[in-house]
Automatic annotation (TrEMBL):
NCBIfam families: PRK00241.1 (NF001299). It catalyses: NAD(+) + H2O = beta-nicotinamide D-ribonucleotide + AMP + 2 H(+); NADPH + H2O = reduced beta-nicotinamide D-ribonucleotide + adenosine 2',5'-bisphosphate + 2 H(+); NADH + H2O = reduced beta-nicotinamide D-ribonucleotide + AMP + 2 H(+). Residues 151-277 form the Nudix hydrolase domain. GO terms for cellular component: mitochondrion. The keyword Acyltransferase does not apply. Keywords: Hydrolase, Magnesium, Manganese, Metal-binding, Mitochondrion, NAD, NADP, Transit peptide. This is NAD(P)H pyrophosphatase NUDT13, mitochondrial. It holds the Pfam family NUDIX. GO terms for molecular function: metal ion binding; pyrophosphatase activity. NAD(P)H pyrophosphatase that hydrolyzes NADH into NMNH and AMP, and NADPH into NMNH and 2',5'-ADP. Has a marked preference for the reduced pyridine nucleotides. Does not show activity toward NAD-capped RNAs; the NAD-cap is an atypical cap present at the 5'-end of some RNAs. The lineage of its organism: Eukaryota, Metazoa, Chordata, Craniata, Vertebrata. Belongs to the Nudix hydrolase family. Its cofactor is Mn(2+); Mg(2+).
Length: 307
């Protein structure tokens, strides 16, 4: 039984935080760790580790939340013994995101994405020879031709479309029961963000958008690493009739401010909410889709206030 360990890059320099006072110094230290195997080996001795098994992180349960323990020592033990010894379980990250906090999730997402990338890039695509990982895990090199492979993220646009008073959400059959989200899609090669937003909205719901506004971005590890680029957009006036592309989506609909605001206020665990008679759930707080929806509600609230 093999155990993977994901190195928490930002945490492992905990000693360094006190000595290095500025963001620039910290960024340069991390750069050095990626470039200098010796420096990285040294840092690992004082570092903290997350444990993964088959890409599932070891988590501890506390009430309705998951805690992410970090370890300084690693031993090779069977999975079940590790779980018993460390009072936790290896839990699929996709299932755990509903109960993780944002600090933990960001590091876990990075660690899992790196582990997955290394697992899938063991061989050079040109020579077919095994590639070698540097100590930091920031790249792999083919010893026969020196080609360097770096971990990659696929750009994905995610758009919250509004008609001024309602917003458009959709669901795929793979989503958890009752969950609706903003429209997302991978950028095609050669496309810029604006073109990808227009195309994805047209492809998925048959609408044309205008007035795009960038909101924020996020690294998302599922199913492979994506860079989520989140935007707001509006449909052309009077063009609100949805034509769902059933190859991509199970359903799509316009939702009113009240429906969305009520869903945002829902309490209880995700499972409890899913068991309601008519579950309508929004993406977890950690997902940038949630942030887009929250922003839209805030904008609507401001717009309805008297001047
Ligand atoms: N963080 C967040 O808030 C959210 C994140 N997402 C993420 O956005 C991503 C894209 O959303 P989704 O609607 O599925 O995308 P798309 O609408 O682009 O549809 C996905 C399909 O596109 C094809 N595809 C094209 N390029 C790629 C690529 N580089 N990698 C994988 N598949 C590709 C695949 O088809 P085929 O399998 O036939 O090859 C896949 O089934 C997903 O990974 C999802 O997890 C989505 C919503 C919210
Ligand atoms: Mg999509």
């Amino acid at each position: 039984m093999s155990l993977y360990c994901g190195i928490a890059y930002r945490r492992k320099i905990s000693q360094g935080y006190r000595l290095l006072s500025t963001y620039v110094t910290k960024a340069r230290y991390l750069f050095e760790l990626k470039e200098d195997d010796g420096a990285c080996k040294k840092a690992q001795q004082a570092g903290a580790f997350y444990l993964f098994h088959s890409l599932a992180p070891l988590l501890q349960t506390a009430e309705h939340r998951y805690l992410v323990p970090r370890f300084s020592l690693l031993a090779s033990l069977p999975k079940s013994e590790v779980e018993t010894e460390l009072q936790g379980s290896f839990i699929e990250l996709r299932k755990a995101i509903f109960q993780l906090n944002s600090m933990d999730s960001s590091l876990l997402f990075t660690a899992q994405a790196l582990l997955r990338w290394h697992d899938g890039h063991q061989f050079c695509s040109k020579s077919g020879q095994p590639t070698r990982k540097n100590i930091a895990g920031s790249k792999r090199v083919c010893p026969s031709n020196n080609i360097i492979y770096y971990p990659q993220m696929a750009p994905v646009v995610i758009t919250l479309v509004s008609d001024g008073t309602r917003c458009l959400l959709a669901r795929q059959s793979s989503f958890p029961k009752g969950m609706y989200s903003a429209l997302a899609g991978f950028c095609d090669i050669g496309e810029n963000m604006e073109e990808a937003v227009r195309r994805e909205v047209a492809e998925e719901v048959g609408l044309e958008v205008e007035n795009m506004q960038f909101s924020a971005s996020q690294h998302w590890p599922f199913p492979n690493s994506s860079l989520m680029i989140a935007c707001h957009a509006t449909v052309k006036p009077g063009q609100t009739e949805i034509q769902v592309n059933l190859r991509e989506l199970e359903a799509a609909a316009w939702f009113s401010y009240d429906e969305i605001a009520t869903a945002l206020r829902k309490k209880g665990t995700y499972i409890q909410q899913q068991n309601e008679a008519f579950p309508f759930l929004l993406p977890p707080k950690l997902a940038i889709a949630h942030q887009l929806i929250q922003e839209w509600v805030e904008k609507q609230t401001c717009a309805s206030l008297p001047a």
